[in-house]
Amino acid sequence: MVAHEIDHYRRRVVDTELDDMLSGLPAISLEGPKGVGKTATALQRARTVYRLDDPTTLEVVRAGHSRILGGDEPILVDEWQRYEPSWDAIRRSIDDDRRPGRFLLTGSATPSQRATHSGAGRIVSLRMRPLTLCERGTESPTVSLEQLLNGGRGELEGSTSIGLEDYVTEIVTGGFPGMQVDTPRLQRRFLDGYISRIVDADLPEIGVEVRHPSTLRRWLSAYAAATGTTASYERIRDAATAGIDNKPAKTTTIPYREALERLWILEPLPAWLPSRNHLSRMVQSPKHHLTDPALAARLLGVNASTLLDGKGPTAIARDGAFLGALFESLATLSLRVFAQPASAQVSHFRTRAGEREVDLIVEGDGGRILAVEVKLSETVEDSDVEHLRWLSKKIGDDLIDAIVLTTGRFAYRRPDGIGVVPLALLGP
Predict the structure, then answer these.
(1) Do 380 and 420 contact (CB within 8 A), yes or no?
(2) CA distance 282 to 352
(3) Angle at 172 between CA 378 and CA 159, to 5 degrees
(4) What is the rounded radius of gyration, in angstroms, for the C-alpha atoms of the chain?
(5) Which of 35, 70, 166, 279 is the most exposed, having the fewest neighbouring CB atoms within 10 Å of its CB?
(6) What is the spatial distance between Cα 139 and Cα 403, in angstroms, rounded to a whole number?
């Protein structure tokens, strides 16, 4: 099939990274949850397309998988995991011809048993996530994450008219391209359909039998309630089955969790494990996040009005309002997208007793650390940067910069050198 470009395509942060990789590597695998825009992004470059989610195309490829090797390059194999031998066929083709830019693959799930060879050195994976605020066209960023990681603590500038209500609207709308519709009613329908597909179709497609869909939905809702916390999975299970005497065993819920991670629906934020021995007695549990905070909001039935009224789930204990957790989840999504092209990793930091905590740690090459606090407020007080100052004393010059992400209007430096940046003004 000959590819056709999609009209009105808006370039994303990952596009520049993908173009760079295609110029030097023979095959790239775009990976991420369904609906995130992998196919649309790949179609901007592909000249031949094989859609393996189309039954006819899949039948033809099954009859002879060498067929996917023919056509003008780059060749796109869409949803390749539906026929896993396609991975090995492409790998073997690359062994014979390593010219750059030959293949694009897209996948919406990690196979339970990846094809016979990992593809290392031949097929390189590139992660795609939902749209950040700047990719949605909400605001033009004035503060670059890459420049922050380069150090120097330069001057921060920029202003925005985006306020709290705008952030809440973006949170409940979500960053899937298909969610960018005109009315909240249509957005809710999209999200409801998305969640139903996960339970009814996506999990069975990867071989996970969902015997009790209601149990899985309750577990997903409990996980959503734990957004931004390090609650144990036992606590999440208990919250999902409150009032039910016969609770599901771990052997039931663990496969659900693992499968949802394979579908990239759950994206826990790992704890920071410093490469140098500066710190000890640190929490190693991940922070819980769904791939998009809109899914968490919809699973729990909260909308913009209820969030602005301070309402939210009570099944999982947390500090502060649930809206603050969703705002932190939106900030986490943004930092993950912006950190990827900078070859940086995002994590969180907390001591075991909980007396010290930093919401987000971005670690660049050479152990350079950017520490980030997220605050659902327009203003930043000295008490809000206490843990950033403490971390600076502990790790010294390894802390290249420290910022607070807010809902305020202006980007600036405080007298102590800590940056204050409205989330809408942060970019790659």
Answers:
(1) yes
(2) 5
(3) 30
(4) 22
(5) 70
(6) 19
226, 288 contact by CB (below 8 A): yes
Instruction: Output the six-digit token pair for 383.
Output: 């008490």
pLDDT at 112: 58
Q: Which residues of 337-373 are buried (b: 16+ CB within 10 A; e: fewer)?
A: bbbbbbebebbbbbeeeeebebbbbbbbeeebbbbbb
Q: What contacts 251, CB < 8 A, 6 or more positions away?
A: none
The whole-angstrom separation of Cα 80 and Cα 65 is 11
Longest dimension (CA), the chain: 68
Instruction: List the Cα angle 101/104/108 in 5-degree steps.
Output: 160
Residue 131 pLDDT class (50, 70, 90 cuts): very high
Strand ranges of the sheet holding 103-107, from the earlier edge strand across to the other edge: 48-51, 75-78, 103-107, 27-31, 123-127
13-127 to CATH, choices 3.10.290.10, 3.20.20.150, 1.10.260.40, 3.40.50.300: 3.40.50.300
Distance from C-alpha of 261 to C-alpha of 249, rounded to nearest angstrom: 19
pLDDT tens-digit series, residues 236-261:
988 888 777 667 777 778 888 999 99
Within 13 Å, how many C-alpha atoms sit on residue 196's CB side?
6
Query: Phi/psi at 262 (nearest 5 deg)?
Result: -65, -30
Contact criterion met (CB below 8 Å) for 288 and 257:
no
Q: How far apart are CA 252 and CA 211, in angstroms?
A: 10
Encode pLDDT of 137-181 as tens digits: 999 999 999 999 998 899 999 999 999 999 999 999 999 998 777
The whole-angstrom separation of Cα 299 and Cα 301 is 6
Bridge-based pairing state of the strands 143-144 and 426-427: parallel
- Here the tokens at position 239 are 């919250």
Cα gap 13→7, rounded to integer Å: 18
The stretch 227-234 carries a mean pLDDT of 93
Give domain limits for the chain: 13-127, 143-427
The pLDDT value recorded for residue 115 is: 45
Beta bridge partners of residue 422, listed in sequence order: 406
**Among 228, 421, 221, which Cα is nearest to 322's?**
228
- Whole-angstrom distance, CA of residue 419 vs CA of residue 156: 7
